[in-house]
Amino acid sequence: MDDNKIVAGKVKKPGKRGRKPAKIDLKAKLERSRQSARECRARKKLRYQYLEELVSSKERAICALREELEMYKQWCTAMDQGKIPSEIKALLTGDDQKTSQGGGTHKAPKSSKNSSAGSNSQG
Predict the structure, then answer these.
(1) Which residues belong to any copy of the BZIP domain (predicted)?
(2) Is 81 exposed, middle or buried (0-12, 13-18, 19+ CB in 10 A)?
(3) Which one, 23, 58, 67, 119, has least CB within 10 Å?
């Protein structure tokens, strides 16, 4: 009587609850398992390909940004020595031409960024 449980006045024998499973064809079950594993590996492969492409594109973006940063550092070094790089001269003359044509929206934000950046680096 130790193995039996009394629930609501009824004696229940230990064991699995619910319906007894129907006799499942073992070969069919194994084939479903194999198919599921194949699909899982295919999904995993696609996920890794996507992630590798994402990492690659981010690495390219980082390289481009590093090159741009190095260019700006060189410009700052040249300007600290009292030289104005030709690229900056070209940008300034291009902006001057735009302001004379009435499209001077580009020059003001650049100068405000430079002045705020300069105050941050000194403070």
Answers:
(1) 26-75
(2) exposed
(3) 23
pLDDT of residue 96: 63
Angle between helices 86-100 and 26-80 (to 10 degrees): 90
Per-residue model confidence as pLDDT tens digits over 55-101: 999 999 999 999 999 999 999 999 999 888 888 888 888 876 665 56
| Helix or strand run (H / E) with residue 6 | strand 5-7
**CA angle, corner 100, sides to 96 and 105, nearest 5?**
70
The structure tokens 């193995």 sit at 3
Six-digit token pair at 58?
């981010």
Q: Which has the closest alpha carbon to 94: 80, 110, 70, 73?
A: 110
Burial category of 93 from C-beta neighbours within 10 Å (exposed 0-12, middle 13-18, buried 19 and up):
exposed
Report the C-alpha gap between 53 and 5 in whole angstroms. Answer: 59
